[in-house]
Amino acid sequence: MPETTVLTPRQIRDHTYPLLLAVTDRGTKGRPGFTYARPVGEDLVEFLAHRDGDDLRLLHDGEVATVGAAELFTLARERLRLLPFESSECVQQDGGEFYVLRGAAELTAGKLVLLPDVLRSVLGVATETPAGLLVSVPTPHELVCAPVAGDLPATLLYLARYTLMTYEQSRRPLSPITYWWHEGVLTPVVTMDEDGMVDFRLPPAFLDAAAS
Questions:
Q1: Ordered per-residue pLDDT tens for the chain, 212 residues
Q2: Which residue in 111, 115, 205, 209 has the fewest CB atoms around it within 10 Å?
Q3: What beta strand segments (E) does 106-175 contain?
Q4: pTM of the entire predicted model
């Protein structure tokens, strides 16, 4: 859809989705005209995008204001909740286990903001996850996750390795970071610096939750 197309408030309400972009993507952080955008974790930004078929266009402040940012984020997230994953894969290796949820639409990674409820219907994973989840979005088409339970060192190692490899090999990477999701907060636990060096950052709260 051309960026000059004027959208009515109804079109905005009925066809808007959350879209995660990297902070470095399209100059997203602090980009003029998109002050409504919300930071997600350390390296992601949640925008609102109007969907027309397979085309997505970021909504600017003026368009969002015709509905209201709070209402539009709520509507967009509920619409994204109804967008199905196309496949789910359980990866098991040396005692570690994690899930890779995939979708054709680049909106798929946006389901990160719907944790943990989004996992219930797809994986049968209980929403009661007292120790939280390990999660990542290496590409716009994937959500990678694992409950913080079982053989945690192996799960963390292999989930982080998968995330980094997928990120580096993708033609459209999103984030190399493995996060710990706990009570609605995303904390980086495995990151990659500008030189490609991997850094494990395990905060005491994460270790305490994992041991409980």
A1: 444 578 999 999 999 999 999 987 655 555 668 999 999 999 999 999 999 988 999 999 999 999 999 999 999 999 999 999 999 999 998 889 999 999 999 999 999 999 988 877 666 665 567 889 999 999 999 999 998 987 889 999 999 999 999 999 999 999 999 999 999 999 999 998 877 788 999 999 999 888 87
A2: 205
A3: 133-136, 142-147
A4: 0.91
Question: Residue 202 phi/psi, 5° resolution?
Answer: -105, 100
SS3 for 41-73 is CCCEEEEEEEEECCEEEECCHHHHHCCCHHHHH
Beta pairing class for 44-52 and 55-58: antiparallel
Q: Tokens in use for 8? A: 């009515």
Tell me how far the alpha carbon of residue 103 is from its chain's centroid.
12
Query: What is the C-alpha separation between 85 and 143, in angstroms, rounded?
Result: 9
Cβ pair 17, 51 in contact under 8 A = yes
The SS3 assignment for 171 reads coil
